[in-house]
Amino acid sequence: MGCSRGRRRLTCVVAALACATAVAVSGELSAGALLAVTAAGLVVAAVGLVRRAGAEAPRVGRRGLPWLGWLAAAVVWELATLADDDLPTLSDLADPVLASPVARGAATLGWLAAGAWLVGRPGPRRPG
């Protein structure tokens, strides 16, 4: 007997809120926050792999170029910070924003929502 869609959604929401609460309460760069985010990330990745999320999604094509540009800029910035100790890393720039427990919890929920969106992308079509 399968689990209803509403129950699965409720379970996901409760798990996401528990993860965000753990991150908010544990503090910055703590073992508790790392454990909560790692566990949630592994679950999202496993679900995506099992469902083969995105297998039937249309090709990105030229629409992906801006994202590729942002990724390249982030990589270049991080490489530049390795060469010059006076430049702040992206993590250093985010630290003041994420210092508040509420902001950390909200950022965690946003990150999990992005993962849920990726997992929800179309998988392979089933014959039928």
Concise overview:
This protein is mainly alpha-helical. It is 67% helix and 0% strand.
Attribute tags:
mainly alpha, single chain
Walk me through the topology.
Layout lengths: L4 H22 L4 H21 L13 H19 L6 H5 L6 H19 L9
Helix pairs in contact: 1-2, 1-5, 2-5
Outline the structure in words:
There is one protein chain. The chain is flat, with a radius of gyration of 18 Å. The longest helix has 22 residues, at 5-26. It contains 5 helices and no strands. It has 128 residues and is mostly helical.
Radius of gyration: 18 Å
Distance between the termini: 21 Å
Q: Helical proportion?
A: 55-70%
Please state the structural category.
mainly alpha
Outline the low-pLDDT stretches. none
Number of strand elements: 0
**Mass-distribution shape:** flat
